[in-house]
Amino acid sequence: MSGRLSFAVPPGLRASEPPEARGLARDQVRMLVGYRGAGRLVPTCFSALDGFLTAGDILVVNTSATLPAAIDGTDPGSGGHVVVHLSTRLSALPAGEELWVVEPRRPVGPTTKPWAEGSAAGPSARDLSDPVAPRWLHLGRRGDGRLRLLAPYRDSRRLWTARLKVPGALLDWLSANGRPVRYGYVKRPWPLSAYQNVYATEPGSAEMPSAGRPFTSELITRLVAQGVEVAPLVLHTGVASLEGDELPYPERVTVPPGTARRVNAAKRAGCRVVAVGTTVVRALESACDPGAGQLAPLDGWTELLITPGRGVRVVDGLLTGWHEPEASHLSMVEAITGRELLESCYAAALAQGYLWHEFGDVALFLP
Fold it and tell me: What is the pTM of this model?
């Protein structure tokens, strides 16, 4: 690999609100189609997606739904305010507790920033995880949720394993006390519905698997009517605010038997398998048996890192949003597109003013 793609995203290209707030339907965002074989770029609108797919192609979608994973809290020891982003549920614990990967953050104006070690604004995260004098953060509007940081998660400087306990069912409690994770480029809060894909069914993602956001029920109906298959899987995403040198962490994934069968059939028939989002690429490639060259059902965790050197074995095409400079996701995209198409697409997107992030525009990469 020739190194991660480096570029600068002008602030004006960071989508700060849903397209609906700009007077557009979900499926009216812009789409840049890139063909690897011909090196051809086609600027279009997402609503024209059915014109780029044919009968027998299979779209694989991630039906994980977004959690209201950002929760206000306080540290009773200092009285300081903290915002906790729930990232990944690890396991159940005794006495109704759960083990989670979380990101503690500090409120800064209308948004939050990573919790800096030793900040003068209050105790460090290590203070809160002191095993000699354990401290529990109080979470939620009534302070009836409890969270205790245990230790840094793997080698992360910002993610922690933590014990979480809330009264009643977690999803009910989050619905009453949480809100969607929001970063500084989104200037005002939006309801959870703005962060859900129309086909989402199983809550579990800290942040929206956003490549699928432009889909509407009507567009999916048109695709199915013309013979394009749509197959589901689930991969629950963690928080996306990775540091520049961080690689993706393990994520929970389920590839159902029916999806495995349909993808294998499409491959045998010479039809294209198009992943809707990098989460789907990771899930499909994790479920591929390299010896048999086929997809098998999968219900577990994936730590797979996809690079141009590793390549892809299942995925032929990819629908995805625009990724940050030098992001690890770009290595995965390059494994599908090749370096030349990746560079030309990103250069065109910057020159033509495509919008970044979860409320932005998309790219469709085809063979």
Answer: 0.93
